[in-house]
Design goal:
Elements (H helix, E strand, L loop, with lengths): L1 E3 L3 E4 L2 E3 L6 E4 L6 E5 L8 H4 L5 H4 L10 E5 L4 E4 L2 E4 L3 H4 L5 E5 L4 E4 L2 E3 L5 E3 L3 E5 L2 E4 L4 E3 L2 E5 L2 E4 L7 E6 L10 E4 L2 E4 L2 E4 L7 E5 L2 E2 L21 E5 L20 H8 L9 H4 L2
Parallel strand pairs: 1-4, 2-5, 3-6, 4-7, 5-8, 6-9, 7-10, 8-11, 9-12, 10-13, 11-14, 12-15, 13-16, 14-17, 15-18, 16-19, 17-20, 18-21, 19-22, 20-23, 22-24
Length: 283
């Protein structure tokens, strides 16, 4: 099913349930087409709350969406193009809370030239395999988080963290040690306010940056420890062939990993998310 969204600002929550597979959702450019909602939740640990969604939320008949999320997609096999998703919750007026622009579930999902805007926990890259190309993700605190296996290509990660405390771009969690799940960023750009590249959602957290330009907003340590007490040594946080003033690894944390050429290729190859050719078969 092809759904064309004409230019405009749409003030609503959107929920694409499990049963609504094979959708092409396209706007007229993320600067002209925007889905926006203002909602936050009171929780101290969204990485647990929204990476272990209750059966009621995942029910095929639930079309009301997820609390604190503007756009939710749980179906398989979809393409989203040229749309912005925003959670317009005002953290300056009401205090910092967990307010997510999009929760991306389902398998074999791709996003092209989309944008995601919020302050805290912007994009819940929840589960399964996803591909993002030429997208813009903006946030301050753990603004890409979840347990998915995803590749981000030619995309911009823009930090808007306020104050002296650096922000955090990623908070990945891999709940099964032998499961191939990771966030891979290749040919991307990191800019904006001071930020860590990420911190672990659990001890199996895996994030790789490859040939990414990092402005001077990336703190020298690169990565931060978890706020939930997980052992950081088993994590796989890695950088390879990155550029820019923020890419200097001289002062990176000691537990950052150095990948072998074979390990690196496993992550950056499109086969990491697509061994059967599903991406090239999408419209």
């Amino acid at each position: 099913m092809r759904i064309h969204v004409v230019a405009g600002i749409y003030r609503e929550k959107v929920h694409v349930s499990l049963r609504k597979a094979f959708i092409l959702l396209e706007g007229e450019g993320h600067q002209q087409t925007s889905i926006e909602w203002d909602e936050a939740i009171n929780s101290t640990n969204l990485i647990k709350r929204n990476t272990n969604l209750s059966s009621s939320i995942l029910d095929d008949g639930d079309d009301e969406g997820v609390e604190g999320v503007t756009f939710t997609i749980l179906a398989d096999n979809y393409v989203v193009k040229d749309i912005a998703f925003k959670n317009t919750y005002d953290h300056k007026k009401n205090g910092a809370k967990l307010a997510t622009a999009a929760l991306v579930g389902g398998d074999k999902g791709s996003f092209y030239r989309c944008a995601f805007f919020a302050y805290q926990n912007t994009l819940n890259d929840y589960s399964d395999r996803h591909y993002f190309e030429e997208c813009q993700i903006e946030g301050a605190i753990d603004f890409i988080f979840g347990k998915a296996r995803s590749i981000y290509a030619n995309s911009t990660l823009h930090s808007i963290m306020e104050g002296s405390q650096p922000g955090w771009i990623t908070k990945h969690a891999r709940f099964e040690p032998d499961l191939q799940a990771a966030y891979v960023f290749k040919y991307c750009t990191v800019d904006g306010a001071k930020t860590f590249l990420g911190r672990p959602g659990n001890s199996n957290s895996t994030v790789v940056f490859y040939e990414t330009y990092m402005a001077d907003n990336v703190v020298p340590e690169g990565w931060d420890v978890s706020d939930i007490g997980d052992d950081v040594n088993p994590t796989t946080f890695a950088e390879d062939s990155c550029s820019g003033p923020g890419s200097d690894t001289t002062h990176r944390v000691k537990w950052e990993k150095k990948l072998s050429p074979q390990q690196l290729e496993n992550f950056i190859s499109i086969q990491f998310i697509d061994q059967e050719g599903w991406l090239s078969q999408q419209p």
